[in-house]
Design a protein that fits this description.
Elements (H helix, E strand, L loop, with lengths): L4 E8 L2 E12 L6 E3 L1 H7 L5 E6 L5 E13 L2 E9 L7 E2 L1 H6 L2 E4 L4 E4 L6
Parallel strand pairs: 2-7, 3-6
Antiparallel strand pairs: 1-2, 1-5, 4-5, 5-6, 8-9
């Protein structure tokens, strides 16, 4: 399966003046959205909860989890993010995709509404 990225605007939920548009790699194999420090710091996001995670290479780490607002395609929601290690990819995970009611259509590298969630 091929990978692709989508542009989203990330917003600090406690200070909406702090926002940043970034390309997030769509990864349905990742449960949570992961943001590198280069994104977390300028937004002033707080990752106060600690979670043990296992990366695709089987390494485990304890990293911070917090909340961020995500604006995509005219819709905005709060979601959970993991504060990843320096140099990691900015990843859009399944939890955030489902929160938006979206699924991946890999053939055309796009996100599509999940029929169950459409009105």
């Amino acid at each position: 399966m091929s990978t692709f990225a989508i542009p989203v605007t990330l917003i600090n939920p406690d200070d909406r003046e702090r926002s940043l548009t970034v390309n997030l790699l769509v990864d349905t194999g990742a449960f949570y959205t992961m943001l590198p420090p280069e994104v977390v710091a300028p937004l002033g996001l707080t990752a106060s909860d600690l979670k043990t995670v296992e990366f695709a290479n089987s390494e485990r780490a304890v990293i911070g989890m917090g909340e961020v607002r995500v604006r995509f395609n005219g819709t905005e929601h709060t979601t959970l993010f993991l504060s990843g290690p320096a140099g990691c990819h900015a990843v859009l995970g399944a939890f955030t995709l489902e929160g938006f009611g979206l699924a991946v259509e890999p053939r055309h590298q796009r996100l599509v509404p999940i029929p169950f969630f459409t009105a």
